[in-house]
Amino acid sequence: MNQTSKRKARILIVDDDPGLLRLLTIRLRAENYEVEAVEGGAQALASTSRFRPDLVITDLRMEPMDGIGLLKELQNRWPGLKVILLTAHGTIPDAVQATQMGAFGFLTKPVDKQELLDQIQRALKISGFTDTTEEWRSAFITRSALMEEKLSQAHMVAGTDARVLISGESGTGKELLARAIHKASPRRNKPFCAVSCSAASEDQLDSELFGHEAGAWAGAAKAHQGLFESADGGTLLLNDIGELPMKLQLKLLRVLQDEAVRPMGGAGSVPINVRVLSSTQADLQPLIASGAFREELYYRLNVVQIEMPSLARRREDIPLLIAHFLAQIATESGHRRIYAPEALELLATAEWPGNIRQLQNVVKQTASVAQTPIMPIEIVEQALGGAPGRLPSFDEARDEFTRSYLSQILQVTGGNVSQAARLAKRNRTDFYKLLGRHQLIPEDFKGR
Question: What is the pLDDT of residue 408?
Fold first, then answer.
């Protein structure tokens, strides 16, 4: 659901001493933290998936999984989740080693209350939990456990500067997630910039990303600032990273390796201060295998990967999303519409190759042609392409099918001609001819 209300920071405590668990739970709840306590590593991993803590406090010596083993599993599954270790005096060297492995810190038993609270505050601040509102995720309408897991992962990694590769089908909300990560990060007050790696020529994309000196590109008379400079201090999203031309892949790799860019009109270089996120609809592994994508760049970008689930994997969200879209339409148009129960059932069970983007388009389409406040199943069948009509001629049927097919494939890809041509198994030239013949303009489908 759209959550903008404040919430308490969530802390998970792990210790095989029930008495200490009770003591720490009482102390932290008195400080207005939401606390869950478990007695072992396996229970902690299960609880983390459900409870989604902002911080874990765990004993170092436990059986069968000790604090080090739990730390490793938490780092693997939820990068960015801060962990504080509890240790006896005799195990301080082990705790020091654990901090070198990524633990936030350690506390010795018996635990001093003020030292505990101070460490918790520092850990939450570094993790990005400086503002306890849920505004960062307000664009997501969900009650799906799977989607909540992805949002939890995004929130945990937001407090770090780790690069994130967001994968998923077209229309699943990859850019929305990137913006949410930016909003939840310490960079939230700096620029967020996004660029499509498939929407421009190589020279234009080069200029947009890296800028150019006066006269260096297309006869330019003035120096042009690239997005790596425009996003200084903030976040840069590289959409459709698999479409990035090979020459620019090498250039991007050098920037990420050197952490520097050449300033406009001058010699030398200046350090970059930009967090790079990227997204892809395509599976990059076959591109790497074929030599179309640089393996080293893939590993530079894919420090953490978050896969956005398709709408078919979160069907419980369809009624929520429909209600949200209808509320938006009512606000804009002044006309309130709802679906008849059988129409809503059809929407909930339909295939959605274009995911949320396609669902939103269907809701807009049906609301725009509806003649009554309650929209019947027939209007949904028409929008989904299942309406009966007069028997067309063969040529009419073929043209109608082709235009509908092209429209759907452009909707699915958000107007990305390269991706659409690949899905249709046509080269770009032939695909452009088909679009022209049927009077379809790719730009009309961008941003849908």
Answer: 82
